[in-house]
Amino acid sequence: MQAASITWTGTSGDGLWETAGNWSNNAVPTTSDDVTISGTVTTTLSSGQTANFNSLTIGDGTNATALILTGNIGTGGSITLANRGTLIQNNTTQQIITGTLTIQSGGVLKHSANSTAQSYVVNLKAATIDLQSGGAVNVDGLGYAAGTAGSGGYGPGGGGYIKASRAGGGGHGGNGAHGGTGATSESGGGIDGDGGVAYCDVTDVATIGSGGGATASVTGTGNGGGLVILEATGTATISGTLSAKGLAAGSATIGGGAGGGIKLT
Do residues 122 and 137 make contact, with C-beta atoms less than 8 angstroms apart? Predict the structure, then answer.
């Protein structure tokens, strides 16, 4: 079959990839189709559904365009994220394409925000990866959530807290910092303001960062960083930004989030 050019129209109004009426030919894209999603839209591939395409372009360079992958890529050739185009992985399954992943300037690859469990990561395998200058794979603050008012941070290395005075930072690759001065402990988490303990296997990065704690009077903003796993069977060219930062603490009453993880193969 010859490749057909298929564009997103969103005519059916449900925002779902798997709805035939949302596409220019009134049919869900197949493995032979060159697919374009553009305009100020968010398209979702639902759980249990499969996205097939010869090529997929997200974004038109002007409008904010996003595709959320809750389901998985079936047979995919190449993916291009144009300026203001965003691909959001909403699961942890490795997504495989046979061609090139291109992230142009202003394009973003990320995953959904985790909370109390590791439910979302970026995990993608391609023949070639081309992260261009100005493009980004960014999972800052998308790891375990920080504690809410008067609780420790979430994750195996969640930061601890003391009810009214201080909160510890989240741990991941290393122990989190203690939330107060004059303390001797820098690990342990719990309810004493300690930083969370380290748990990342730095030889095979596969986990997200833990959140910081929060005192009773302050809701924390210190979420941990997320996780990026990228595999190129051929060449990976990294000229853009790879980032998995934890969110910073605003004061001693909020623990900062631990950095996440980045694994390139």
Answer: yes
CB 48 within 8 A of CB 25: no
Rounded-to-integer distance, Cα 205 and Cα 187, Å: 21
CA dist 86 and 64 (Å) reads 8
pTM of the predicted protein model: 0.93
SS3 content of the chain, % helix, strand, coil (to 5): 0, 35, 65
**Confidence bin at 185 (pLDDT 50/70/90):** very low
Residue 240 has pLDDT above 80, yes or no: yes
Biggest distance spanned by C-alpha atoms of the chain: 71
Comparing CA positions, the residue from 47, 45, 10, 52 lying closest to residue 29 is 52
Q: How many CA atoms lie within 13 A of 50 on its CB side?
A: 9
User: What is the rounded average pLDDT for all residues in the chain?
Assistant: 91
pLDDT for 183: 44
Write phi, then psi, for 53 (nearest 5 degrees): -170, 155
CA gap 201, 252 in Å, rounded: 28
* Alpha-carbon distances of 237 from 62, 94, 128, 264, rounded to whole Å: 25, 20, 8, 11
Q: In angstroms, rounded to a whole number, what is the distance separating the alpha carbons of residues 237 and 102?
A: 10
How far apart are the C-alpha atoms of 245 and 223, rounded to whole Å?
9
d(CA 116, CA 151): 13
